[in-house]
Amino acid sequence: MREGRNESYGEPTTHRGARDRILHKTAALPSLVTLGNGLAGFAAIHFATKPLPPAEIAKGQEACAAWVAGNLVIAAWLVFAGMICDALDGQLARMTRRTSEFGKQLDSLCDAITFGVAPAILMLHAVQGVLFPLFGEVTPLLHTAIAGRAVWFIAAVYACCAIMRLARFTVETKTDISSHMAFSGLPSPAAALSVVSLVLLHAHLLEPQGWQAAPWLAETVVWAMPVITLITALLMVSRLRFTHVLNQYVQGRKPFGYIVRVAILVLAAIILGFQITLAASALLYVLSGPVHWLFNKAGRRKGPAGKNKHISAAAPPPATQDQSD
Q1: Per-residue pLDDT reduced to its tens digit, 172-231
Q2: pTM, whole model, 2 decimals?
Q3: Are the C-beta atoms of 200 and 277 separated by less than 8 Å?
């Protein structure tokens, strides 16, 4: 090897040493972005649980409901900001070649706050704020209505399933990107997105905007929140296969047909509205795992039967014993 040059990379060692020093200095950046994820979840919990000020209480029930709905929208956007941080921290760690066990553990802890606890609290307060006359206080105490206790139980199940999902992912995950093309169980960011997108959709439907300004439709979204939350909780701890959207559909070169599908999705967001498109996309992704499992199960059932039928049609009939002998 010639002095001053790395033959394996074809670049001067002085330049490579300078690049390594730069990467070493920026190694803290992925951890800071991960902490931003946890901070966004903490802020989301703060806004979702923010008590009503006396000035809003004096304005009446409608003003209180609007104030609570506005805080829930802020909390939902903060969870969405946490998702962006969660998508960036891994990319930054690989770019700086500073993937570590510390970063992996820190990522799981922050995800537990933003994608585990925060969406459950958002769902609790969204349901309680709209359906309080029917459910009363949403709490596990025995003196409250059973419907309120059921909603609290669903939120608790969601938080526990998200934490268990993150613990299992931390133990089973590998550093190789090729092994991250699919998830075993619904990923916690997708589960959180399905919940907070309904919060955003409910607030959007309360605004007078043509056909979307339907009180019954907004109330239907609120009734669907506990159901969707419970379904996503169970899917997180399942073994159903879910596609890794970022690794399969974002990274690398894509064909022209992929660009057309993205353009159609953007056009739908413009026509239907961002909130409706976001909620529909999140729920379709949640359904993709069970639908994929059902198709695979149906294929396994038809496969052996079709194969045996093909073999029986191609093979000659078996020889029969001549009864005249």
Answers
A1: 876 555 556 678 889 999 999 999 999 999 888 877 665 556 677 888 898 999 999 999
A2: 0.78
A3: no
pLDDT at 213: 60
Whole-number Å distance between alpha carbons of 58 and 64: 9
> For residue 313, which of 303, 305, 301 has the smallest C-alpha distance?
305
- 90 three-state secondary structure: helix
Coil/strand/helix, residue 6: strand
Alpha carbon distances (Å) from 90 to 8, 10, 97, 219: 27, 28, 10, 38
Question: CB count, 10 Å around CB of 78?
Answer: 23
What is the per-residue pLDDT across 140-165, written as a single tens digit (0 to 9) for each? Answer: 877 777 888 899 999 999 999 999 99
What sign does the CA torsion over 110, 231, 234, 88 have?
negative
Residue ranges of domains in the chain = 24-175+182-298
Q: Show Cβ contacts of residue 69 under 8 Å, excluding neighbours closer than 6 positions.
A: 129, 202, 203, 206
Other CB atoms within 10 Å distance of the CB of residue 51: 8
CA distance 42 to 35: 10
Per-residue 3-state assignment (H helix, E strand, C coil) for the chain: CCCCEECCCCEEHHHHHHHHHHHHHCCHHHHHHHHHHHHHHHHHHHHHCCCCCHHHHHHCHHHHHHHHHHHHHHHHHHHHHHHHHHHHHHHHHHHCCCCCHHHHHHHHHHHHHHHHHHHHHHHHHHHHHHHHHHHCCCCCCCCCCHHHHHHHHHHHHHHHHHHHHHHHHHHHCCCCHHHHCEEECCCHHHHHHHHHHHHHHHHHHCCCCHHHCCHHHHHHHHHHHHHHHHHHHHHHCCCCEEECHHHHHCCCCCCHHHHHHHHHHHHHHHHHCHHHHHHHHHHHHHHHHHHHHHHHHHHHHHHHHHHHHHHHHHCCCCCCCCCCC
